[in-house]
Amino acid sequence: MPSASLVSSTTIDLGLAKGRSTSTKIVQTADLVHPEGSITSPATRATLNFQYASLRNINHCPTGMYITPSVESTLVWDAVLFVHKGYYQDSVLKFTVTFPNDYPERPPTVRFLTDIFHPLVDPRTGGYSLAPRFRPWRPKEHQIHHILHFMKSTFKEPTLDKLHEEDVLNKEAFNLATLDNSIHVAGSYRDNRTSFATLAKQSAELSQSPSALYDTSGSKKNHSLRFIPLKSNEVDQVLGALSVHTEDSK
C-alpha cells in the first residue's frame, strides 16, 4: 500500500459530550435539511447527536473504521473501513451512511464509493444491503453502532457463509464461493471459493490504487475523509507525531 495520510476535511463535530462544534454555521443550516430537501425533525437530530456521541464508547465504533458527519449535512456520514484480515485483507473502503428525515423510524442507507466485489454491494450503484441483519428494522432496538459492526463482520468468512440469496445485491459474487469445494450448494452465496477469493483480493488491491485512494477522478470530492500521498520524510514525521501523542496520552 502506498504511503498515505488520512485527513478530514472541515466538517461537523457533534461531540456533544463536550458541547462543542467546529462550525456553528453548518450546524444551523445543513443540520436542518435532508439531502432530498425535506426538513429534518428535532427528534431525528437529537437521535443522531446521541448516537454519534455514543460512538466514543468502548466497542461502539469498530476498530479499523473512521466516521464523521459530512460537510453538507449531518444526515450524511462519511466513513472509511480498513479491512485487516480475510478475503478482503488490506482493503481501504470509503462509504456513506444516509439517514432518512424520520430516523430512527426508518433505517439509513449505506453506499460504498470504493468499488468492491461483494455479495451485499450493488456493482452498479455501490448500494449495500442491510437485510441479512436488519430485516425487519426495529427503531427502538437498532442503532448506528449495530450497523457499523455488522458491516465489518460481512467482510469476514463466518458472516459471508451465512448469507442468503434473497438478501444479496451481487448475485455473481454470491455464487462464486462455497463452504466446501466438494459440495455444490445451489442457490446460496457460493459456488467456487477460490475464484471468489481471487476477485476479493483484486478488489482489495484496486482499493489501494492511486485513483481510488486519492480520488484522482474527483468522483468522491465531497467525502469528508480523504487521503493524501506522503514522501518518506513526511511518513517519519507522522510516525514521530503519533509516537509523541501516544506518550503524552499515558
Automatic annotation (TrEMBL):
SMART domains: UBCc (SM00212). Keywords: Ubl conjugation pathway. Pfam families: UQ_con (PF00179). The keyword Transit peptide does not apply. Gene3D superfamilies: Ubiquitin Conjugating Enzyme. CDD domains: UEV_AKTIP. InterPro entries: Ub_conjugating_enzyme, UBC, UBQ-conjugating_enzyme/RWD. Residues 43-209 form the UBC core domain. SUPFAM superfamilies: UBC-like. This is UBC-like protein. It comes from Suillus plorans. The lineage of its organism: Eukaryota, Fungi, Dikarya, Basidiomycota, Agaricomycotina.
